[in-house]
Amino acid sequence: MQRLLLRASIPLIAAIFSLSALHAQEDTTKPTSVDPNLLALQNAKIPKEYIISGISLTGVHFLDTAIVLSIANIQVGDKVLIPGGDLFSKAIQNLWRQKLFSDIQIYITKVEGDNIWIELNVTERPRLGNFKIEGTRKSDGEDLQGKIGLVKQTIITENMRRHAVEVITKYYTDKGFKNVTVQIEEKPDPNFINSNSIVFHVNKGKKTHIDNIFFSGNENVPDIKLKKQMKGTKEMTKITLFPTKEVSPFGKDSRNTKFGEYIKDWAFLTPSKTKAFLDPYFRFKLFSSAKLDMKKFGEDMEKVVTYYNSLGYRCTDCRYSYL
Questions:
Q1: HEC-encoded secondary structure of the chain
Q2: Cross-strand partners of 89
Q3: In this model, does residue 182 exceed pLDDT 90?
Q4: Which helix (DSSP H) or strand (DSSP E) does residue 255 occupy?
Q5: Are strands 115-124 and 48-58 parallel, antiparallel or unpaired?
Q6: For the whole model, what pTM was predicted?
Q7: Taking the CA atoms of the chain, what radius of gyration do you get in angstroms?
Q8: Residue 198 in contact with residue 156, Cβ under 8 Å?
Q9: CB half-sphere exposure, 249, CA atoms < 13 A
Q10: Is the Cβ–Cβ distance between 141 and 48 less than 8 Å?
Q11: How large is the average pLDDT for residues 242-258?
Q12: Can you tell me the distance from the alpha carbon of 177 to that of 140, in angstroms, rounded to the nearest whole number?
């Protein structure tokens, strides 16, 4: 059947509707005779008003045809100016706003006098078929499926993909993995009509370990006592002559004590002060994995503040961060 294409590619959504963009398109593999009325319409220079005498809708698998035509706001009996009218471009924009389609085309299939017949051809966005999460433990995968909330045969959108990646990333970030990557593999699913299967390939990377815990702005309570309040957040075992020199975003590390000050204050006579002084160089944690668990970290910080307040001090600006 001979047709005249009115819109070729919806992602462009051009505001200009020009008949110069119209071209004949063959639907059969064998040559057919050219409809002279379609050619005349294609080559017309003077605008003329036509009446839409018939509308066919193709490409719909799930949506109700009446609803699609209603959204397009185009119906039999409507008048359209060719070239120069904007009825068809508005119909395409109306449909595109619904985010239900990946492509929309309008064809003129027949011309008789002042009457035209059109075909509205749409490509529905693929729907979700089967999906799975790879690279995780079975229990983690089951938890993530519930948190992501994917439902089969819902329309696949960019927001759906982004939400899934964010949930997976946060899930492992809260467990102490700070270098999580998620790759999405999407391909047609033969088990469902117009559907894609999605596989989330997860690489959670290595778990983050805690090298040092230090407090800035703490002038009243020994850091070692504050650390004791943190039951789920522990530092790594360390033996070194060159302690790590982190720079806190909150200011100077309150535990940094120079050797001269340590001797001058006779701190070597006090076990707790000696332990605090040696902490950056020597630290032995026999049963501590030193893995960062953000949930436990938050709970421990609340314990630190509670302990600080119980001593009669008030933490007026208590914040925490990790480097």
A1: CEEEECCCCHHHCCCCCCHHHCEEEECCCCCCCCCHHHHHHHCCCCCEEEEEEEEEEECCCCCCHHHHHHHHCCCCCCEEEECCCCHHHHHHHHHHCCCCEEEEEEEEEEEECCEEEEEEEEEECCEEEEEEEECCCHHHHHHHHHHHCCCCCCECCHHHHHHHHHHHHHHHHCCCECCCEEEEEEEECCCCCCEEEEEEEEECCCECECCCCCCECCCCCCHHHHHHCCCCCCCCCEECCCCCCCCECCECECCCCCHHHHHHCCHHHCHHHHHHHHCCCEECCCCCCCECCHHHHHHHHHHHHHHHHHCCCCCCCCCCCCC
A2: none
A3: yes
A4: none
A5: parallel
A6: 0.58
A7: 34
A8: yes
A9: 6
A10: no
A11: 59
A12: 14
Whole-angstrom Cα distance, residue 129 to residue 192? 6
Strands (E), the chain: 2-5, 23-26, 48-58, 79-82, 101-112, 115-124, 127-134, 181-188, 195-203, 238-239, 282-283
Query: Would you give the end-to-end CA distance of the chain in angstroms?
Result: 67
Distance from C-alpha of 195 to C-alpha of 126, rounded to nearest angstrom: 5
134 and 201 Cβ atoms separated by less than 8 Å: yes
Number of helices followed by number of strands (H, E) in the chain: 9, 11
pLDDT tens sequence across 51-60? 999 999 998 8
Of 42, 69, 37, nearest to 55 by C-alpha is 69
Instruction: Give the Cα separation of 217 and 209 in Å (integer).
Output: 24
How does pLDDT run across 47-96, given as a tens digit for each residue? 889 999 999 999 888 888 899 999 999 999 999 888 888 898 899 999 99
Tell me the pairing of strands 101-112 and 23-26: unpaired
